[in-house]
Amino acid sequence: MFYHDGGKLQYEVKVEKPNAAFANALQQAIGGVQGEIRVCLQYMFQAWGARGPKKYRDMLLETGTEEMGHIEMLATAVALNLEAAPASMQEAATEDPVVHAAMGGMNIQHAISTCMAAMPVDSSGVPFNCSHVYASGNVAADMLANVTAESTGRMLAVQLYKLTDDRGMKDMLSYLIARDTMHQNQWLAAWEELGGPKNHPIPSNFDQNLEAKDFSYSFLSFHKDKDAEIPTGRWSQGKSMDGKGEFSQKSMEPFGGVPDLGPGSEKAAVQKKQEEKDDDSFLNLNSVF
Amino acid sequence: MFYHDGGKLQYEVKVEKPNAAFANALQQAIGGVQGEIRVCLQYMFQAWGARGPKKYRDMLLETGTEEMGHIEMLATAVALNLEAAPASMQEAATEDPVVHAAMGGMNIQHAISTCMAAMPVDSSGVPFNCSHVYASGNVAADMLANVTAESTGRMLAVQLYKLTDDRGMKDMLSYLIARDTMHQNQWLAAWEELGGPKNHPIPSNFDQNLEAKDFSYSFLSFHKDKDAEIPTGRWSQGKSMDGKGEFSQKSMEPFGGVPDLGPGSEKAAVQKKQEEKDDDSFLNLNSVF
Amino acid sequence: MFYHDGGKLQYEVKVEKPNAAFANALQQAIGGVQGEIRVCLQYMFQAWGARGPKKYRDMLLETGTEEMGHIEMLATAVALNLEAAPASMQEAATEDPVVHAAMGGMNIQHAISTCMAAMPVDSSGVPFNCSHVYASGNVAADMLANVTAESTGRMLAVQLYKLTDDRGMKDMLSYLIARDTMHQNQWLAAWEELGGPKNHPIPSNFDQNLEAKDFSYSFLSFHKDKDAEIPTGRWSQGKSMDGKGEFSQKSMEPFGGVPDLGPGSEKAAVQKKQEEKDDDSFLNLNSVF
Amino acid sequence: MFYHDGGKLQYEVKVEKPNAAFANALQQAIGGVQGEIRVCLQYMFQAWGARGPKKYRDMLLETGTEEMGHIEMLATAVALNLEAAPASMQEAATEDPVVHAAMGGMNIQHAISTCMAAMPVDSSGVPFNCSHVYASGNVAADMLANVTAESTGRMLAVQLYKLTDDRGMKDMLSYLIARDTMHQNQWLAAWEELGGPKNHPIPSNFDQNLEAKDFSYSFLSFHKDKDAEIPTGRWSQGKSMDGKGEFSQKSMEPFGGVPDLGPGSEKAAVQKKQEEKDDDSFLNLNSVF
Amino acid sequence: MFYHDGGKLQYEVKVEKPNAAFANALQQAIGGVQGEIRVCLQYMFQAWGARGPKKYRDMLLETGTEEMGHIEMLATAVALNLEAAPASMQEAATEDPVVHAAMGGMNIQHAISTCMAAMPVDSSGVPFNCSHVYASGNVAADMLANVTAESTGRMLAVQLYKLTDDRGMKDMLSYLIARDTMHQNQWLAAWEELGGPKNHPIPSNFDQNLEAKDFSYSFLSFHKDKDAEIPTGRWSQGKSMDGKGEFSQKSMEPFGGVPDLGPGSEKAAVQKKQEEKDDDSFLNLNSVF
Amino acid sequence: MFYHDGGKLQYEVKVEKPNAAFANALQQAIGGVQGEIRVCLQYMFQAWGARGPKKYRDMLLETGTEEMGHIEMLATAVALNLEAAPASMQEAATEDPVVHAAMGGMNIQHAISTCMAAMPVDSSGVPFNCSHVYASGNVAADMLANVTAESTGRMLAVQLYKLTDDRGMKDMLSYLIARDTMHQNQWLAAWEELGGPKNHPIPSNFDQNLEAKDFSYSFLSFHKDKDAEIPTGRWSQGKSMDGKGEFSQKSMEPFGGVPDLGPGSEKAAVQKKQEEKDDDSFLNLNSVF
């Protein structure tokens, strides 16, 4: 169950010079794949589905609740930036260059669809799609998904910081950037606590003896030229990160044949010619098994 | 530029007992958010946009090429599993329980739209959407996105392994699971090589002095009851993971006021009443800045 | 800014007999267009963009906060219902009819993608898309959007109530249905307070003298037979609902001509033949204006 | 079954000064969520699924047919506005400010993908998605969905009217605005005829005694501070709008406990640690039921 | 402008034995990518944007109007098939096998979201997305898009015909299949009239001398083994289909180098290491141009 | 199984004057419905599901592999064009007109989300959606889908060629245009080899005697005025294209009645009034069958 605080904001949101194009750029931080709706729902769904040690569930709920307040801050920032949106094309075209640029980069829906308010869309106007809420139920996988989200989220906030010279906006973004710093550290800490690289391979409750072990720690090259140099690094030799194998590398070749799905079936809506057996097909994998 | 090998498969794909419902489950590994189309395009786009040290680009290209072959294997597996798809509802209803179950869990489009072949959709029939191709251009963030994808990808492959008792399918999956093991290790190794936790906060080319530093390493609690226990762990005290701060925790309270967007503007399509100033609004952040 | 309560639920959520197919049906109430993610974000975005009298903003914030707790309840209900999900197809096929039916109607992703937890998708597995968050910025239009959402939301909850015979689930749904009753009344009350039908036509800040007034209160029939009976009702005669006109009805005929867009332009990628002027085109609206 | 009239338009569509940016803005009225494709298909699907009194079905069919003609008018308007689209970037950059602005605000796909014709997309270029076709089968709920659609539709048309100073476009929009006025009244009239607020709670064929009645007419506050003022209005006291209850208000507290989903299952792809029972989990709702 | 006929159908739609699973399969013909909403809007948008000879526009308008009536027929068929939908899970589980199968294959939303009516979605419940409305503005390309749509549309109708043994449904489908036969012929005829293969390459108003002509009529092989056999057929030798070249075939090799995008820019949110120049990068295409 | 060539490109990709707006336009050729991701995956999925004569499968695999290399070229072109992207709004506003225009037409995500790299989206920023991968399993239908894709693909490439005056970009596009010329010819050749128009109606393995033959070769007019002229052409008389019928034309009239779905069911969430039988409904098709 959740509560609000009468609309008070986590941190101040002020705009010195409203700018409709910057309002549009801010939308990426609301409804983009790196944005706040995503992390809010992601942490919430991870919490609500959490099985196992309770503290991860609790931590997820804390930070999911924090992120809801970040959406609120950004939605406020968008609305305040839209106060300078031009009302007509004539107005935009004849104004000074800055207003003019704003018209070019603004989302026209802010003028014609929302009465100058934020929308749950990204900076291209594409609505947020909840398939981006990654909640796998495996706590270690989820921690990694969260570090990733906060890394791209901070990248975005940093770029927005550079894009504007509005002091109010820079101040608000300095807070959001700081929180992204913490959250990157927080999810890494949880992942570390669970074992860090030793957690892997995820999921840990599957018997690795059932894997095709020859391929479990080998970097495979697919360069057409078998003698081409294979890119080397920490991944090409030494102990594997999970401590369960030794890295190697090799040039790959096919271990399977050419599949033959056989002729088209009369059950299916094919052309008559497809129903005939092709004489030079070499192998019907299924029939020879 | 890319090449093929006349259709030869990386690893054998055989099906003992075709099963239309398992064909549908396999679709998740093709077109799901954890699936092979996603990782193939993700590694490719990361490679094609890579700026900086060349070896990461090369490695990404190698593994992106590998994944294209995984889609091919899975598409073959789906087609082979569809050979037992019932052709009519009558047939399905009167058959033995296993065929019957298959009908229940199959994707009817395999029968009516594709002539018994795979589609680039997930196991709910939702087409893959390329917004899931995460390629941020920041090499460390991209490595994390990749570990995440391979972690959820291996989870999926493991569940598919448990779901079937077809020997051919278990064999194919044992290969894919092994590759996911390697890829988790591979991306972790690259991330480690770039500095591991010391890479953070991502992006590393932004001056942390511009952050609101009071909030950079503090776990914030949003429990309504200020005295409630805050979930503790590696994230609540000690050196931060990036080595640049010290973890702390606190109960959060609002640092901002209640925003007031003011009355509706006549530029916008509001109700007349909204255009009046509300007397008891307490603060117009914008005007007092 | 928002707070949580350590995960306590608004109302009890218990499941007597876990049922994976019912878990799937419940997903519609989470991620369907009539579901709780939609209303939660809808009321929040309406609040965050509200201009004009403050009390509507406050009310929206209250109920948006309530809805976040409803998502939490439903996500819990889904997770509890998934405890009986079959782990393999063999298991499902040989079980008793009820488990078997469950397999037929379950979302296989609950077994292979989420470790038996809820997802932000509907009962077809389609992820929620934020374009359904209707927040127009016009307070009266928004109230109507909200009554609509709560009406279809209650319809859904009622059907879920009928679908199950689990006492725990019926109890939880009786609470959600009650809240939908209140919310329908609440948004209607706000709409009434703003003037009810007299609010219309929305938006009220546009001068109706600029409309093509002959068409403002007339029900138009498009039956191909001019003498066919026109459907009559409250809309066909008497004072209009907004009190600003008198209803009438008429059989429509075209007031415009046939448009002629002229020949294809060499600017465009057309066929050469399209670039020639067609002799029997009757009217180029643009050129005669 | 439907008929056309050789392409004659319902109302004149003329463009004085083609403007590619306005063409883009008009797309919102074609393929936006408030646009004409939506209402056309919405009224059609409501009609085709209508059960119960025939006159609502007939009325829906009439207006659905009308809306198809509105799409036609707008598509014509877009095509006529595109005649001034610049053919190259060079041309755009060196032209006068108005053309230049047009380039900034135009949809480049109009130049590179459609040979200067309308598309079924909104003004951000996002294709219309039929999940917005609301047809619940409950006639009262559908009437409300329709009033909502016409309210936001008229808001949009009004904003487009303000955006342009083209006489032809203003004339066309004055017709569409008038029709939106009628349609708002029409759907409200049908809703009123069915009982107006007395129709509620929707659906009306569910026994309200099965609701958790304590919560059916109470405005709940979720302010973290129990003593905070609750927003008051028509919804906080007096007879409820449906006439079936009395409004009240209260500060909410949790009636449910903290859910405990228990340890992760070996059926699922979790980490081994999740499979252990957490000692300090307080309540497994499922087991105590 | 469009008209209706009081709801009369183009052809009879009767259902002998309602079947909820078949209702779901029929949805593919309404909202699938091969379905009737697609062709209806596709022909309409092609007509509304048609530039050049008027008769193509007229023909498109005719058939677009026909397709609207096909959606109506199918929506009616879905509603009639849903009359046997089970009302509860208990009911489904204990019924005879046919009803039971129906439950397995039905779209549960037909029971919980639409009051037993059709939706604009496909047989997986995925809403139709208007990006499938192909209207390029090039009349020859559009005719080909239309033959394609009618080919896959007829495939679908044929499979639905096989799936059911309901006499009413078979009769309705025999009509739709016949219309698809005509429409395939119709669009081919128009394409032929415009020049058939001689229309190509589309678009015809671009000077082929500007192409890299060495590659215009050559089948390229990308087999990794330069000596592998290249698949031969009508495309590998002889006059090209457009009559403007001679087919040939060759094994492809790269004509471009390895791109080097250079170091990461400080404008971007990269890692510091990416900002350094990589010593062994071999070529910066941009700088050497 | 697939191979790469160390990143070498099929053809040179150079950019003289980076232009962020042109980078955005190029995105249409990557992630648009006419773009290279679509054809790459389309040919691959057609190959992987091919049943019947092996040579079509082989040919599809060849060209699918080629298209992967085209995505690579375009992604490189986008990255090189982004080097002039402005880093702040201030910078954009004060620069010369060309840079300024670029800001207007650029995708701001290139600056804030990707570190100046390509994304799998179209020129409106809409991500590619794999529902556009048409692979029907019927080889003739698939060849037509492919000609269509290459026709609109070439239209797009031609428009991009006109849009730019950068010599490097024009050179790259001249190659892609040439390949589209070949591919149009190639798929037409395969279709011709399979029988050309004689392939039709597709699918060819369905007995045409089961069609409602009166409607199989007749152009139907839906003009409301029965005496209106019907558009004539190759489709209105003479032998049908498939050689199996004779074209005719007629003015259509309804062969079906008005459907009556009967009263609402108490199974559904309707209003009570809908549950009553409507006295003047004329026909319940289902009950009279």
Give structural notes:
6 copies of one chain form a homohexamer. With 289 residues, chain A is mainly alpha-helical. Chain A folds into 2 domains: 20-198, Up-down Bundle (Ferritin); 208-251, no CATH class. Helix content of chain A is 45%, strand content 5%. Chain A has helices at residues 20-31, 36-48, 54-81, 89-94, 97-105, 108-112, 139-163, 167-193, 285-288; strands at residues 2-4, 218-221, 238-239, 246-251. Chain A has a 3-stranded mixed sheet, with no helix packed on it. Mean pLDDT of chain A is 91; it is low at 280-289. Chains in contact: A-B, A-C, A-D, A-E, A-F, B-C, B-D, B-E, B-F, C-D, C-E, C-F, D-E, D-F, E-F. The A-E interface holds A 154-156, 158-159, 162, 224, 267-269 and E 154-156, 158-159, 162, 224, 267-269.
